[in-house]
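Hey, I'm writing a tutorial for new members on how sequence and structure tokens pair up, and I'd like a real worked example in the thread rather than a made-up one. If someone can provide the structure for the chain below, I'll link this post from the tutorial.
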Amino acid sequence: MKNINDAIVGISKREWAEGKYAIQSWGSWLHRIAPYVGRIKPSFAHFLIEYTTDEGDVILDPFGGIGTIPTEGMLMGRQTISNDLNPYAYIIARAKSEKKKPLQDLISYIESINVCTDNISLEDIPEWVKEYYNEETLKEIIFFRDKLENDKQYFLLGNLIGISQGHRPGHLSKPCAWTLPYKPRPDDPGEYREVKPRLIEKIKRTYKDSFEQTGSMKSLYGDARKLDVASSSIDAIITSPPYFDTLDYINSSRLRLAICGYYEDEQKNNLKNQLIQKFDTYLDEMEKCIKEFQRVLKKGGKAIVVVGDVFKAKGDINTAEVLVPIFEKYGFKCHSIVADGIPVNKSVQKRTSNQKFDRIMILTLENK
């Protein structure tokens, strides 16, 4: 396991902010299966892993999202686990974790599918979802989703969900943003977009880079407060928990969640209520997670936790400093907090003229 002082020195270089690493799309095309609001850059994940772990180490991301940290770890020869409560995020992470078959085998499988939408009904699909699609295209999406799920083709399913929304000709919806589902123009009738050729072109793009899978990746659909992970089995936790009362992970993914089958208001509200980010309960819920971190982490193991500052009318909150006493309560020692400055964007940070920081907490578990 890497020396903690060397890890601090390495992370403090902030190499992900320089040159080619500063580009949002740096890294394997595997990272680009689909977007996710608030996800960290693959280059950021790369250097956190590089400076804190060794090949063969077991890395857990309890708030894995679409699996950016575990995917990069897998490509770097680590044994990784991604965990998340968002069904859309889990599907994309699982797609990345599936052992990759030869590209031509996947293309042949897709080409062999006899597409028949005669039995596909849109009766239960909400009108707001239908606004984004040509009717026949939406039926084909649902047909392929059900087919891929039934055949356990999770890699292909993730790629399908990835192209279900976007503004390019290879996407299946009416033109709208790739990440956030802004409403399409009301006068857009929606052209028919055949799924099969677009799915084939999507997987060709995903295969643009070779997959040097010297490591492994497992994807879990679960709660960070009750991890399905064995005690004392993890060498390092590297994660970026939901930020304190900031991002809406459900609403921002609502269209892809609908394509995954989660479109009822009750379903979405239940998901929202399970997430950890409400201002009044954030610290209490994070304490439950930290207690789990202590359980699954080996004694002496590292926890690299990335959190963001929060701006409130009554004053700014340095989330890392607030969390340190909770980590200490459960046997962790905080060796350093590295500030990673984010340029002020007035269109986003309307309530402050101060620079916002992500804080990288570098901790070890001293007592079990």
